[in-house]
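Entry type: protein chain
Record version: 2
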Amino acid sequence: MRTSVAVILLALVCAAGSAQDVKLYVAESAHYRVSAETSQSQADEVARRMEALLLLANDIFHFDLSLLPSKMRVRVLKDADSFNAYLTKILSQTRTDFVFVAYSDPEKSELLIYPREEKSFSSSLIHQGCIQFLKGFVANPPVWLREGVATALEAAAWDARAAAYTPRPNF
């Protein structure tokens, strides 16, 4: 009897814990796996933008895309508070902007973002996404290259109809 009660209590505790889990909407593209807490449409949109960014960045670098060891990961958190809670859990710190978290195992690395005003969202997505892309091919690129290209590209304009970024001067 005690064993049965203990098993039932354990099952209830596990069920309560999983009820608090956040539902993730997943979109996969040729080179990205996007998990979003927000919606399926946001996951799909971010996957489209990341593929467009990959093409924009690869117009500069000309990497062989078949050499990527795995799909690059992007996590869309529901808001800035969720973003910082997640960062605190994995890095014990918070940030005011999107961040690419790189691990020695590229399959664990992920770009962390959250919804915000379009201009700010787009420039931050491009900047950090460019860093993610570059680190997918070069483990430790020099800071001047990583930040220089990311900064140069962050002014690109998103064209939703064409699903493409158009480069613009970033003065």
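Comment: The first strand starts at residue 25 and ends at 28.
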